[in-house]
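Problem 12. The chain below contains 307 residues. Write out its predicted structure in token notation.
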Amino acid sequence: MTQLPKYLTGDSVAINEFLDKFDVFLLDCDGVLWSGDHLFEGIVETLEMLRARGKRVVFVTNNSTKSRPDYQKKLTALGIPSDVEEIFASAYSSAIYISRIMKLPTPKNKVFVIGESGIESELRTEGVPFLGGTDPALRRDITPEDFSGLADGSLLDPDVGIVLAGLDFHINYLKLSMAYQYIRRGAKFLATNLDSTLPMNQTFFPGAGSISIPLVNMTGQTPLAFGKPSQAMMDAIEGKFKLDRARTCMVGDRLNTDIQFGIEGGLGGTLAVLTGVSKKEHWEAADAVAVPAYYVDKLSDLRATTS
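Solution.
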């Protein structure tokens, strides 16, 4: 039987022992630091405490709607000091993989994007050509002419070699139809992340994984994903920050992304918070996808340390 996690809230001795085990904390954002634009109480002070104890903090998010500079702006607006290099997002991870690993030969290296400006910004920074995304011409109903153009290929760009699906607040039948036609014509199917839901305004909304599900159903393919729990993302983080996995802890609210990410990545520990998706009953279930090593009610409970 899998050992249940140690509960740290209110136990200052246990919290100190926990903090002493790690040099680096990989922090999920949505559901851990905030929900939507609501910053959880005590987060700024908790991050200050971690840094004061010499801990490195890395913000690791699956949300692809923002670029790293956009995320830094959000952190700053919420009163959280940060450096853009401390931020590792799924849009950035995807762009790095496409430009530096896949290296598709021109001209068949164009990306059809389902997603928001965060993906476009990171692709642009890496010099990767793209179309779709936030193009207002695609934010409309499909027409009979579209059906004809998609069927005969005249509406498609022959240089598209990749379909990258992320969270798209303007998803529609036309975008899905175009993505499907590109994939069936041989384009590689990639996803920024596979989160089924998005924590927002203290409730949940469809996540990027729910956006790509129609394409999975149509193509029979599972996309290569770059967000947690993908170990491609872990390898990239390790390479960038030169961290010691045994002295690194993943902190998150979701078992099948954050906690699984840390466990499969061989990190020294995982910490679950109860301010987001997963609850105690999820890891206590017999079929739990992952079980954290530790948990707290909320991240700011880590401030209850002994001096």
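Discussion. The longest strand covers residues 56-61. Students who got a different answer should revisit the alignment rule from Section 12.3.
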